[in-house]
Every structure is written in C-alpha cells, then in structure tokens.
Amino acid sequence: LLSVKCSQIWCFLQILAVCHLLFALSLLAGDYGNENVQLVKSISDLQLPKAAILGNHDCWHTHQFSEKKADRVRLQLERYGVNDMAGSAKKIYDAAAGAPEGNSVVLLAHNGPTGLGSRMDDICGRDWVPGAGDHGDPDLERAVSDLQRETGVSIPLVVFGHMHKSLAYGRGLRKMIAFGANDTIYLNGAVVPRVRYAQASPSYEQNRPEGSVLVAPTSRAFTIVDLSEGRVEKISEVWVLVSGARTELEEETILYKHPREHM
What we know:
- By secondary structure, the chain is of the alpha/beta class.
- It has one domain.
- The chain has helices at residues 12-20, 37-45, 72-79, 85-97, 138-150, 202-207, and strands spanning 2-4, 26-28, 50-52, 104-108, 154-160, 177-179, 185-188, 195-197, 218-228, 231-243, 246-257.
- Strand 6 (177-179) and strand 7 (185-188) form a beta hairpin.
- The longest helix is centred in the middle third of the chain and has 13 residues, at 85-97.
- The radius of gyration is 20 Å and the shape is globular.
- The model is unreliable at 1-10 (pLDDT under 50).
C-alpha cells in the first residue's frame, strides 16, 4: 500500500519512482496543483491500482463566483448532497458500512479527523496561528466513531494529507501518525516538498544516450504501509532516487512497526 500526497507535477520521473516500489495500491490524497487539469488527467490515465480524491487546491481557485450566488465551497457540497457535518459523516459511514463482510476498510481523506490533538505539532494541529488548535474534520471523526460503535467493520488505517509535515515558520516537524480506538492508525502523508533536486553525476552525463535530454536526478518522497490480514505491520517514509532510467531506495525512516508477540 502506498500513500501519496502530490504537490508537484506528475511526470515520467514520478511514475518511475512509483513503479520502483512494487506496491499493491496507491492512495493519492489530493492537492495535485492549483486546478491542474492535465496533471489530474495524467493520474487518471495511469494503469496502476489506485484511489484518488481531490484537495482544496484542486477545486475552487479559478472559477469566478458572484457574491449573489452560493459561496464556492457550498456550491460543491450541494452538488454531492452534503448540507452539514452530520450529512457528510453519514455519507462516509454509509460508504464504509457497505464493505463486504469480513473485509477491513481503509479510509482515504484529504484532511484528518478532529480528536487527535490540539498542539501545533499534532497530526492535525494548527501551526500557523498563535495558540495552535485542532484543525481536523469533525465529520470524519464522527463517521469513524459511529462505525466502530455500531458496526463490525474493522478500520485499521485512515490515510490523509493536507497538514504539512514541516511546521510553519520553521517551528519543527509534525507528528505523522496517531493511534485511536480499536487499533486504528491515523497516517498523514503530507511530506512537502515531495521532490528534492540534485545535480547529475559525471558518470551519468558521460553515459547517457546521444540526443537524450539531460534531466537532473531527483529524490521523491513516499509513505509506504505494509498491511497484512487487516493489520498494519509497518509504516515508512522513504525517498526514492530517480536518475535517468535508474531508481533506487535512497532513505527510509520507519514511523511504526507492529510489536510482535513473544514466541
């Protein structure tokens, strides 16, 4: 399972990096650019197992709205029949509750739920205002709570982005995982920027095919989850080096590893 929050152009190098990881499923949590239609189409065309949703940067930047009309956010919510937080929570609930019996559910959202902390470095904590605060979505918290209380659906993982790992004004780094009731793990994949640029090595410049365009090597960030039999086994943040047609794992930071029972 691969969780990706894209904030850079989805190009050939990115595809190479993704394929290198040999994942079972790619989750894309939104913010692909400021209404970058071509980029979103490229993601849609990828012949890979994937699930994708939109983020706030994908939805309402270019369209001009009259003050006499419904505001831009409300217009989109009404399109999908969402009138309030309770209605939104019910839509999430109904979708997850409809999963086939015996299957676990992984929830994908752009932002995480409320209830996971109100410090600025918490997984959904406000880092841009004095006093911090909880910036999670209450509808997602309610949906998860209702599902766990009223159904037998197992939710081992909730994946989202939106809240950048690097805190505003150089205040440090955000906690990227949190633990909830019923062994649910909340995972934030918003490592931003997701691309690091480097200079091409002398050997690569000498050996590249004649007529090819020299593209500087890049390192690209992914969050990888090993999920087995409905349980999260391991979560890692990785950087994959892409140089020409060559890809390799450059760096891995383990965020979580399931404690093994003593034999």
